[in-house]
Amino acid sequence: MLSFDDVVARYEPVIGLETHVELGTQTKMFCGCPTVFGAEPNTQVCPVCLGLPGSLPVTNKAAIEATVRIGLALNCSIASWCRFARKNYFYPDMPKNFQISQYDEPLCSDGYLDVEVDGELFRIGIERVHLEEDTGKSLHVGGATGRIHGATESLVDFNRAGIPLVEIVTKPVPGIGARAPEVAKAYVAELRDVIRTLGVSDVKMEQGSMRCDVNTSLNKLGETWGTRTETKNVNSLRSVERSVRSEMIRQGNILENGGHIIQETRHFHEDTGESTSGRSKETATDYRYFPEPDLVPLAPDATWVKELKAALPELPRVHRARLTAEWGLSALDMQSILNAGAVELIEQTVAQGASPEAARKWWLGELSRHANERGIELGDSGVTPSQVAQLQKLVDEGKLTDKLARQVLEGVLAGEGDPAEVMAARGIEVVSDTGALTVAVDEAIAANPDIAEKIRGGNQAAAGVLIGAVMKTTRGQADAKTVRELVLSRLSN
């Protein structure tokens, strides 16, 4: 069986990503139904989003504006005239049996997004950014996996049907070789940061407000591109990377054994890191696109578009460059922070009063280790920037050493409360009572007379033994620097 390295040595990967982003508008795309996440099933519906006969859609202006802003941030050209189309297909969560989308006339097109991987810059071409409506959600119950296979019944919740959905489609990305999985992950991460900065979506992949379809194909060097597969609805940055890697290995082994790749959709499984076949992949003609007769065309005013462009916020790459300078970091330092998904977390921690150096230490140290061990994103660890800043403040005030602070952090991670609450509950605090420390030092000296004589003779390095004894007596809660000073002071007399 070919390994990933074997595949890369023999084949050239080409990737493409289709990212769906639910916009954070108050109402749906073509009706006035609310878009609150987590509402009781089928309570946020009306004749329009249920596709009942005689109902007519009306375009959501806020969704149009949000889509144009996304297009501008991705360096796209904004159409002066475009229109919606009907994309016809049947699926149980499609109440109308067609989706109002855009086909050959997208609102935004021909842009790019620059991403960095270990200091290397990759420009990802954007084919189109278009606006459509989301579908409902199928719930398969009675089985072990939550998928239709093995389920005893399926339910449909139409609350999501009709929510404004932006689809961002990249151009094919060839020539990236072994970096393909990393570039895919970096692109989705950068895109998520851009959209979050614009404030048009919460881009919570775990809740489905940002979903990624990953296209992958292989070809031998110098040959035409191979047949692609589409891994659907990948819902975490880690899984984007894993799905590309897994699909490259799967396709490479099929080709190596003389097989052929089938153009199909595939489902990625988080638990195994592998994908299974879904359905054969349709082409545009299968959807029988035609212009939506119930909606007028869109014609964004050029002056309005210019105003939106001028009002764009500082975008992530520019923002990171400014923070790099302000925090006194190297480009490699910032890349490490970016790779860990910690830029925003560190910035928020600094805003709460911690120094950039201290904030970086905690997020890239203990908290990254904790997240990696559990296979979760850094921001999902359960600790807030405010709590990290509180923890560092206790260290700065001398109430905790770094070692004790790590014990307190364990309690915060376990859900025991804020750092001060964990300190109180666990009885953790630096012993600062000089009198008590002096007694502990004297006891250590009395118990180790030979070590004491070495120190009196000028061997200060031997003080480590006595310091260790005092730390043991105080359960590690004494300040080692203070203990050292007391040891040397007592033995200099």
TrEMBL record:
InterPro entries: Asn/Gln-tRNA_amidoTrfase_suB/E, Asn/Gln-tRNA_Trfase_suB/E_cat, Asn/Gln_amidotransferase, Asn/Gln_tRNA_amidoTrase-B-like, GatB, GatB_Yqey_C_2, Gln-tRNA_amidoTrfase_suB_CS, Gln_synth/guanido_kin_cat_dom. The keyword S-adenosyl-L-methionine does not apply. Belongs to the GatB/GatE family. GatB subfamily. The gene is gatB. It is an enzyme of class 6 (ligase). It holds the Pfam family GatB_Yqey. It comes from Rhizocola hellebori. Allows the formation of correctly charged Asn-tRNA(Asn) or Gln-tRNA(Gln) through the transamidation of misacylated Asp-tRNA(Asn) or Glu-tRNA(Gln) in organisms which lack either or both of asparaginyl-tRNA or glutaminyl-tRNA synthetases. The reaction takes place in the presence of glutamine and ATP through an activated phospho-Asp-tRNA(Asn) or phospho-Glu-tRNA(Gln). Residues 344-491 form the Asn/Gln amidotransferase domain. GO terms for biological process: glutaminyl-tRNAGln biosynthesis via transamidation; translation. One of its GO terms (molecular function) is glutaminyl-tRNA synthase (glutamine-hydrolyzing) activity. This is Aspartyl/glutamyl-tRNA(Asn/Gln) amidotransferase subunit B. It catalyses: L-aspartyl-tRNA(Asn) + L-glutamine + ATP + H2O = L-asparaginyl-tRNA(Asn) + L-glutamate + ADP + phosphate + 2 H(+); L-glutamyl-tRNA(Gln) + L-glutamine + ATP + H2O = L-glutaminyl-tRNA(Gln) + L-glutamate + ADP + phosphate + H(+). Its EC number is 6.3.5.-. Keywords: ATP-binding, Ligase, Nucleotide-binding, Protein biosynthesis. Heterotrimer of A, B and C subunits.
